[in-house]
């Protein structure tokens, strides 16, 4: 079980991701735009952030750069969710600081698989670093 922040402006996608994560026993907080998402990350220190790339005002890439620049938050794994599954998207997401990437429409099994994989890696990282 983990505490997960989902930053997503599309209500249907937010509902789907929240449903999937809570079904797997995780606690979910959400924000529908970047400034609120960054504030929530700073306040709550979630175990994982799932972030839509196409957001109003501050896009997901800028959110990723902002979180990874903050020493208190840099270790939190970030999963990018993007509507445009185009060649180069994945590279752009990784360059911005995302640790994983999934394209919309969200495939439930792949989404949950990505989340669990990032959480596992994070735990291993902590053990290795202690
Ligand atoms: Mn969006």
Structure explained in plain terms:
The protein is built from 5 helices and 5 strands, in the order E-H-E-H-E-H-E-H-E-H. With 130 residues, it is α/β, with parallel strands linked by helices. The protein has a 5-stranded parallel sheet, with helices on both faces. Helix 3 (60-69) links the parallel strand 3 (48-52) and strand 4. Helix 2 (34-44) runs parallel beside helix 3 (60-69). The protein is globular, with a radius of gyration of 13 Å. Bound molecules: manganese (II) ion.
Going across the major beta sheet, what is the strand order? 2-1-3-4-5
Helix proportion range: 40-55%
Task: Give the overall silhouette.
Answer: globular
Write down the secondary-structure element order. Answer: EHEHEHEHEH
The total of beta strands comes to 5
Small molecules bound in the structure, each named once: manganese (II) ion
Radius of gyration: 13 Å
Mean pLDDT: 92
Counting H and I runs of at least 4 residues, what is the number of helices? 5
Sequence stretches where pLDDT stays below 50 over 5 or more residues: none
Q: Could you tell me the strand content as a percent range? A: 15-25%
- From the helix content, strand content and strand pairing, which structural class follows? alpha/beta
| Main pleated-sheet profile | 5 strands, parallel
First and last CA, distance: 21 Å
């Amino acid at each position: 079980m983990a505490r997960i922040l989902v930053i997503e402006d599309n209500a249907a996608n937010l509902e789907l991701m929240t449903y999937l994560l809570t079904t797997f026993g995780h606690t979910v907080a959400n924000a529908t735009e970047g400034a609120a998402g960054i504030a929530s990350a700073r306040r709550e220190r979630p175990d994982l952030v799932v972030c839509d790339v196409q957001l109003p005002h501050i896009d997901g890439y800028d959110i990723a750069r902002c979180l990874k620049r903050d020493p208190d938050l840099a270790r939190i794994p970030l999963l990018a969710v993007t509507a445009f599954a185009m060649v180069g998207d994945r590279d752009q997401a990784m360059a911005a600081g995302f640790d994983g990437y999934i394209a919309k429409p969200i495939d439930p099994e792949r989404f949950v698989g990505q989340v669990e994989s990032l959480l596992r890696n994070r735990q291993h990282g902590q053990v290795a670093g202690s």
